Amino acid sequence: MADPQGLEGSQPVDISKHPSGIVPTLQNIVSTVNLDCKLDLKAIALQARNAEYNPKRFAAVIMRIREPKTTALIFASGKMVCTGAKSEQQSKLAARKYARIIQKLGFAAKFKDFKIQNIVGSCDVKFPIRLEGLAYAHGAFSSYEPELLFSQEQRSETRHILHLRIYTRFSLSSVKSSNDLLRRLMSYLNDCVESTCVAFVGMGYNL
Fold first, then answer.
1. For 23, which of 17, 170, 188, 198 is 20 to 30 Å away at the CA?
2. Which Gene3D superfamilies match (predicted)?
């Protein structure tokens, strides 16, 4: 069954939802949760499976589970960051599994203030994206420096960030829900087709 949110992550693609053949794909979900207790990171690293702790390099335990395939950063304050999930539901499930592991190690871990912090998605639009044209059309809130990186960055008033990768792919990050991600992906698809052509005509290009 396809993802009910309309975005494809680890789920099979429902082609009927994407008659254009353009399928937005969730790549990574970052979430945070408060375990609401102090943690002995050394004890956790020694007792838990698939956990590592090197305080000289990073002040958190790095723990991994296979299902959902994710990585957690667990801090002594009780704060935890979960990355690698392909959907919001997977991210919450993974965070709960990490919290349960901490509980089984003897800590009074709770599950408070779970929040999706960032969603990254990508899309193959099936046509070349003219980054110069988009930068020209949206110069007030976009930047494009091909000498440094072959991508374009756009920032909206809500601080959502769009990275346009050259040729036919782009990714969207710093959104808070998959519905919002889908809406913005499709909005930028329209910009790629419409405003880029207008911009290149304005710049003197013969399209």
1. 198
2. TATA-Binding Protein (3.30.310.10)
